[in-house]
Amino acid sequence: MKFVYLTLALAGVFGLATQAQAQQTASTVNPLWRVAIGSSLNGSGDYQVLKTHVEYAPLLGAHLRSVSRLAYVGSSHPITIGGVYHIPQSYHAANLEQELHWLPFGANRTVEFGVGGGGFVGYSKSRSYTSYGYSEYAGYFSVPDNYKGLHVGYIASLYLDFALNQERTWRLGGRLAFQNDNHGTTLPGSQVQLSRAW
Question: Which domain of life is it from (predicted)?
Fold first, then answer.
């Protein structure tokens, strides 16, 4: 009888130790730090811009991930008319972005899928035009449409990540996103992202 009690006690201690180790292992894959690079289409000017970001993505339960992101978006794409007249066209922005992602199949799986949205605030500088052309009297011309200053907007995105190791601490995947700000700048795009759980 004493042997049975001793066996049960040892099993209980082993069970608690295993549970603690499992919880410790689970905590090592949360939160994620991500770096990403890709491109977006500047919808107001229809040219590609670079987008790169770093983000911090802790879990909020088994099916939610909070995403705090520092992002840079920018590129220059001047237009040349008649081989002689150049119209400057560029967009550069630095954003603080916040999203909440729903993970319908759960977190920290071999394949992790998330969909969600949020908002952002940042500073941007844009050089563009409202019209351009050629006049018999004035020659080539363009009407500038430039601005710089603060902006706010919303983001919708989805991502798919694949675990690169058995511990699932390294992940590689892709992200599709659409964002729009109060200046009417739309930026649909995609990024490749590398994640590391710390």
Answer: Bacteria
